[in-house]
Amino acid sequence: MPIELEEILKIRPTERPDDLPDGVWEFPARLAAIAQARELSREEVAELAHVTAGTITRWFQWQGLGGLKAPAICWLEIELGLSPGTLLGTPKAGKTGGNTFDVVAVIDMAMRLGLDKSVIAELTSGGTMTAEMKDFPVGLQRAVMGAVHLLGYPLEVAVPAAKRAMANLGKGTKLSAESWLSEMRPILSDLGSPGSGTYPSDKFKVG
Q1: Radius of gyration over every alpha carbon of the chain, rounded to an integer in angstroms
Q2: How far does Cα 137 stand from its chain's mean position?
Q3: What are the φ and ψ backbone dihedral angles of 6, each rounded to 5 degrees?
Q4: CATH class of the structural domain 5-79
Q5: Burial of 168 by CB count in 10 Å (0-12 exposed, 13-18 middle, 19+ buried)?
Q6: Beta bridge partner(s), residue 49
Q7: Contact of 28 with 8, CB cutoff 8 Å
Q8: Coil, helix or strand for 96?
Q9: By the 8 A CB rule, do 72 and 11 touch?
Q10: Three-state SS string across 100-165, please?
Q11: Handedness of CA 193, 197, 199, 203 (dihedral sign)
């Protein structure tokens, strides 16, 4: 049965918890609107997010939003062909560290990726790795984040792998994050191995 946005909005709580960012609070309605437009059922949305249908039901009841898992959000945006940050309605940051990046607000990005806020603050403040990523296409920047968070590679392995993939295909190549990550996988295996690691490995813990 396709998802009906109007029915979901009827059970939306009148008050938002103080600890939930605006983008996370609007997530159920935003996801429901997209699902309704594409005539998707809860089971189909659950399959795209790699979660259970029960999890989708809880989201549409505005429950468990404080524990949204990064992989579920990432998978939904990849499978639905959405731009990074679409589902959480996150804004684009301005210039950071002298470079302009399409990054989401610190608190929302931290929640999406399951990272400590200090890690995201470092990434958006012109740190060493951020500087090295400044010439990456948006899809490749996101692939680096996927290699770190989803595959478990340290950032200092993921960034060189991304640079090599871009050199192999050409700087002007435009690919989705998923395609860039596919190009990076064999290179990642050559450069290092995944693990809980740190982010970057000498400074920050992942997850």
Answers
A1: 18
A2: 16
A3: -60, -40
A4: mainly alpha
A5: exposed
A6: none
A7: yes
A8: strand
A9: no
A10: ECCCCCHHHHHHHHCCCHHHHHHHCCCCHHHHHCCCCCHHHHHHHHHHHHCCCCCHHHHHHHHHHH
A11: negative
Q: What angle do CA 199, 74, 134 make, to 5 degrees?
A: 50
Side-chain-side CA neighbours of residue 71 (13 Å):
11
Look up residue 110 and give its two tokens: 């931290």
Helix, strand, or coil (residue 19): coil
pLDDT at position 135: 78
Structure tokens at 108: 């929302």
Give the integer Cα–Cα distance in Å for 82 and 74: 10
Q: Where in the chain is the domain with CATH 1.10.260?
A: 5-79
- ∠ CA 42-145-160, nearest 5°, is 150
pLDDT tens digits for 26-49? 899 989 999 998 899 999 999 998
Quote helix, strand, coil % in the chain, to nearest 5: 55, 5, 45
17 vs 25: CA distance, rounded Å: 9
CB 157 within 8 A of CB 191: yes
What is the pLDDT at residue 147? 83
* Low-confidence residues in the chain, pLDDT < 50: 91-108, 111, 117, 124-126, 196-207
